[in-house]
Design goal:
Domain HTH cro/C1-type: 18-73
Order of helices and strands: HHHHHHEHHHEHHEEEEHH
Oligomer: single chain
Low-confidence stretches: none
Helix content: 40-55%
Protein name: XRE family transcriptional regulator
Strand content: 5-15%
InterPro entries: Cro/C1-type_HTH, DUF5753, Lambda_DNA-bd_dom_sf
Organism: Streptomyces rhizosphaericola
Mean pLDDT: 88
Pfam families: DUF5753, HTH_31
Shape: elongated
Radius of gyration: 21 Å
Length: 285
Amino acid sequence: MPSNVNPTVRRRRLGQELRRLRELKGMTAEEVAERLLVSQSKISRLENGRRSISQRDVRDLCGVYEVEDHRIVDSLMQMAKDSRQQGWWHAFGDIPYSVYIGLETDAESLRVYEPQMVPGLLQTRAYAEALISGALPEAPPSDIEKRVNVRSRRQDRVNAPENPLRLWAVIDESALRRRVGDNQIMIDQLEHLVEQSHLPHVTVQVLPFEMGAHPGINGQYAILEFPDAADSSVVYIEGVTSDLYLEKANDVQRYSVMYEHLRAQALNVDQTREFISKIAKSYTS
């Protein structure tokens, strides 16, 4: 697959265009579903990019929307073809959060709040292994290794020499206090966190316990932004059995405002490094 083709992003862009064509036609998703003898949920999944789109789907939808310009149809058909190709993560087999990985791979910047753990993109391998093993006690070693390898591959975006991912992480103090693995794993992880925070495109802030209640009290979330103006920002909320993706402008704005409050309440960059180093020393005793 060409490196510049991201199937997840292609599906998302294609879905947005199909939604635009439907709205221009003045039709509801239910009306389109009735015309094509499919479920309304299928139309919704095609439009939000959560389902693979076939060229036949595109052809049928363009027929319903009476798209007469063959150049538009051909372009959408090509996007459907590209969207069915496999990203690098498919080489690792079934990954439960593959949609998110596809978005992260194409993102320009990522803002994440983590209340329980060090963010995946900033984890050491030993920390990741201990964390995943603890979170999935019934998973076989091969599954643990696969997930760790995927996580390591994702980190290439942060450490890329050109066009690295712009990462801003606000981490709750509890993530630093929670011992994952043994003391040496925690020392190495916290030292790595400080080291990564010195990269010009990485910002790390800690939200200490003493700040009390705050806008992120309900849990982890991430905001992904993309270089192409046609790709709207996405709020990602990880779940146990399913994940939530919010793309409506009002939802993204609400979470963005929450994130600004978190950044304002957290320690600044220098204070954060000093704070993390102090906690790292506590693991030596």
